[in-house]
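Q: My labmate handed me this sequence with no annotations at all. I'd like to see what the chain might look like in three dimensions before we decide whether it's worth expressing. Could you predict it?
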Amino acid sequence: MRVKGGPKRKNRRKKILNFTEGMRGRSKDAHKLALRAMERSLAYAQRDRKARKRNMRRLWIVRITAAVRARGFSYSKFMAALKSQNIDLNRKMLANLAATDPKSFDNLLQTAKISA
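A: Here is what I predict for the chain of 116 residues:
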């Protein structure tokens, strides 16, 4: 007797079709096309998560550079001075400080200038 899969098969297909809900064309309806579309979208998602991390780091560096240059210093010297003072603040926090709390950023810059 031939077994076609029953509820398990239906649930597997349903899971994939639910994932591709909202896509255009037959890739949201046809199982074979939906499976390809799902795999492709997951691959893009992984790639773009990595790209977002790179882009955010670049943005933070640009923001820090702008804040430091406005105060007559350079980014590379600022980061080297922070490292020599053993101040471990990541670029995200430094960019946030530069944008939201200029006084604290000025204090940090003065600390860095003393060591440089």
